[in-house]
Amino acid sequence: MIRLGVAVDAPQYAALGDVLHYTADRPQPTGSLLRVPLGRRDTLGLVWEQVPEDAPLDPGVTLRPVGEALDCLPPLGPAWCRLVAFTAHYYQRAIGEVALSVLPPELRKLDNTALGKRLNRLRRQWGLPLPEGDAAPKRRRRAAPATEPAAEAPRPEPERPPLTDDQTQVLAAIDAQFAAETPTCQLLHGVTGSGKTEVYLRAAEAALAAGRQALVLVPEINLTPQLEARFAERFPGRRLVSLHSGLTPAQRLLNWLGAHLGHADLVLGTRLAVFCPLPRLGLIVVDEEHDPSYKQQDGARYSARDLAVYRGHLEKVPVLLGSATPSLESWQQARTGRYQLLAMPNRVGQGELPKVRVVDMAQQPKPPQGREPSPLCPPVLAAVQERVSRGEQSLLFLNRRGFAPVLHCAACGWKSGCPHCSAWRVFHKLDRTLRCHHCGFTERVPTACPDCGNQDIEPMGRGTERLEEQMVALLEGVQRPDGSPARVARIDADTTRLKGSLEQQLAAVHAGEVDVLVGTQMITKGHDFRHVTLVVAVNPDSALYAADFRAPERLFSSLLQAAGRAGRDAEVAARSEMWIQTWAPGHALFAALRQHDYAAFAASQLEEREMAGLPPFSHLALLRAEARDPSVAEAFLRAARETARAWLAEHGEPPVMLYAPVPPQIAKVAGLERRQMLLEASHRGALQHLLADWVPGLHALRAAHRGLARWAIDVDPLAI
Description:
Elements: E1 2-8, E2 20-24, E3 33-38, E4 41-51, H1 78-90, H2 95-101, H3 112-125, H4 165-179, E5 186-190, H5 196-209, E6 213-217, H6 224-234, E7 240-243, H7 249-260, E8 266-269, E9 281-287, H8 304-315, E10 319-323, H9 328-335, E11 340-344, E12 355-360, H10 378-390, E13 393-397, E14 406-409, E15 426-428, E16 433-435, E17 442-444, E18 457-460, H11 464-474, E19 488-491, H12 501-510, E20 516-519, E21 532-537, H13 551-563, E22 577-582, H14 588-594, H15 598-612, E23 619-627, H16 630-651, E24 656-658, E25 668-669, E26 672-681, H17 684-703, E27 708-715
Parallel strand pairs: 5-10, 5-11, 6-8, 6-9, 7-8, 9-10, 12-22, 13-20, 13-21, 19-20, 21-22
Antiparallel strand pairs: 1-2, 1-4, 3-4, 14-18, 15-16, 16-17, 23-26, 23-27, 24-26, 25-26
Helix pairs in contact: 1-2, 1-8, 4-5, 16-17
């Protein structure tokens, strides 16, 4: 009998090892999918290795046979398997846990016959030949009268806008990477509106012309439809598929199959698409590479951007990272020469970047006693009203959804806290609910204070729902050029829950049916709003003094990206503006923002990080633990710290700093108390060496701490 090493989807804490051995009556290539028994259930497995015939077998061990092979599907290639192996090793997860979790969930439900039907459906849908024996229809139908086949109308050549000088130079550098034996990762730093998407289109065109496939990653699902439309318009004769969580399981499987079989020429997707098998891969593009959405926050906490770079190195294909505000990690790689820096400092059409105006809120008039302050100070409100009267659009950015962050009782001090989390429940006025945005616990708004019975409970603070309501009142009587009233709309996670609602609302903005758009960060990324000439950051100060060392980088990126939504049409660029309402106008971040000077901001931040020994000048891992009793989580982390110290003392490794366990900013979520312990090393290799030996032992350590709900290791955490 033949022995196979098979990876199954079992979490690392199950301590089953990376692969399990089974017997088979015939060889199965590495990368093949098959059904295997696991305990009392039948599950999907991936052939990971061929076990030598003379490999020893422990006494008393009986190997179970594999089940049905899904042999209608070609095996996953060696490069894909190496990518999965690297991910599992670097992020400290089991190989099967990574490999099976990145495959379409529908594959787990199908046998070989059902999968073959799905493949035939894909071939019919795309006009591909069916395998022999499957071409005949199931039911006999009356033959249709013979007719002459209609001549296919010639497709018009897609419109290709003329290139700017910046784009021409950048594309020449990218073309050179296609010819390189070992391509270098390239960082495209282009200001908002400089035409980065056109560069992606031309680079993909070059890859397709060479008979290759292109993979384009976007950070969030709401950016996928508009980019997909741009690529479909440019490449009308090519097969284009998308991969993201908004697809139905059946759609996701068909798109994945099209890519894996090599039929799809272009794949657009969110972070999970970095694992899409592509036999003809020729280009990887990571748009908005700085975005934290590329970091997975549960399971294998991988960074899709970093894995895209590794995959490009593995398969020797060009990788293009694009952003107007690159991550400091990528910027440092470009400074040291590991990445090639490509710059596009000018907007298409030589349009001006919006003027940034910082408003000192301390100098603005105070509202009368007992009256709530206006969301916009007088000069900002006047600027919005002026845009409405000219028929131009304004965008109000407030990164907080809901009506108000908290309800409170002035009589006794009660606040709408969450009973399961150390966080406030947000007041949503539209459905009169108090909602926790961490655990999802929702209740109707009480008619009176739960503590003292006072019926005068009031909202504190402001979210997008409240801002929208206030703007409708503030713009009452303000008319558009045709005499009609101002129109206010809101786009956030609450207004885009239904399928297709986001696309519908964005289409209304693009069509000029909205004068003032209120929204969270989801409207500040990547959208090409041609009629927006004013952007207002309503209250950005909360991020200025956050404990997380990455907070200034995120705030600068958010504000610069938001500013980039204004003046994208060269005709109105000269009068485009961004107003920032702040109580700290002298902050250095705003000085760099006024000049649109990312390089100066990045230089100052990197200098601070280097002095403090923070990434990218050090490497971090975070061990998290959760339990209903916080002392249990802390005891587990302290014990883990001692085992790590013992390992370091025994091996004489370069030092790894092991910090004491502390609670995170939100210490309790869904009834579980959370604690975390930070590990820091100046060398990535030293940290990885410790993790490789230390993490497997934590599974046994957990058994000694009863009451521990779960623990997880996060390598290269984005938030500490």
